[in-house]
C-alpha cells in the first residue's frame, strides 16, 4: 500500500465505454484469488501478495467505472479464511481500512457507492468501522456500487436467511404461501441487487469456494490462471468480450 496508484482520472461516468447497455454485465462478481502464490513466486511472504492485490482492486474498480458496470462484488474474505494463520488474517482485515484511507475521496468524487455483504458483526471493530464509514459517506452516490464480500459465506448467508424466515413465520409476519424465490432473495445479504451476470475467478482454481451460492444460479463463469496481483484491465476486458459472445438461455432454446 506504499505506492500511490493513479486512480480514476475523474473521467465522467457513462462515457468512454464501448459497450451498449445490453452487452455489458450489470453485475460482476470476482473471486480475487492467487495473492499467496504470487508472493511465493517472488520469495515474499504471503501478506505481500495481499498488499499487491489492493493495487489490482483499484485498477479493476477504475475499469468497472469506465465500462459502466453497475455492481462489482469483490470476494475479499470468506468465512473459511479464518482458518489461516492469525498474522495473515490480521493483515487481510486491515486492508479495507488502508484501501479506503487512500482511495475513499476519489471513490466519492467518482460517484461510487460502497456496500458490504457478510457477517460484519464478527469482524474486528477497525475493519467494521472503516467499512461503515465508507458506506455512510457514499450512501447517496448512484454510480458504480462497489460491494465488498467480507466474512462472507454462501451457506451461512442462506442459513441466516432461513432463520429469519422461520422467525418471521413464527411471528406471523410471513406465511408459507407468500414464500417464493423472490421473497427468499429479500432475506439474503444481496437483497435488492440483481444476480451477477458474470463471475470472474483469478488464480486458476475452478470452484466457488462458498461464494454467492443462491445468486450464481444462472451466472456466466469466466476463469483465468492469472494471479490476482497480475490481473489487469486488459484481462478484465477479455472477460467482458467473452461474456458478450455467450448466449444466455436460462433453460430456454
Ligand atoms: C486470495 O488469495 C485472497 C484471499 C483469500 C483473502 P489467496 O491468499 O487465497 O492466494 P493463494 O490462493 O494462496 O495463492
Ligand atoms: C476464496 O479464495 C476466497 C476469497 C478470494 C476471499 P480461497 O483461496 O480462500 O479459496 P480456496 O480455499 O482455494 O477454495
Ligand atoms: Mg486462494
Characteristics of this structure?
single chain, about 250 residues, alpha/beta, Undecaprenyl pyrophosphate synthetase, six-stranded parallel beta sheet, binds 3-methylbut-3-enyl trihydrogen diphosphate, binds magnesium ion
Structure write-up:
The protein is α/β, with parallel strands linked by helices and 253 residues long. The protein has a domain at 27-153 and 195-244: Undecaprenyl pyrophosphate synthetase (3-Layer(aba) Sandwich). It is 40% helix and 13% strand. It has a 6-stranded parallel sheet with strand order 3-4-2-1-5-6, with helices on both faces. Helix 1 (35-41) crosses helix 2, helix 2 (46-66) runs parallel beside helix 3 and helix 3 packs parallel to helix 4. 36% of the residues are buried. Mean pLDDT is 93; it is low at 1-21. The structure holds 3-methylbut-3-enyl trihydrogen diphosphate (2 copies) and magnesium ion. Magnesium ion binds at residues 33, 203. The site of one 3-methylbut-3-enyl trihydrogen diphosphate has 11 residues, from strand 2.
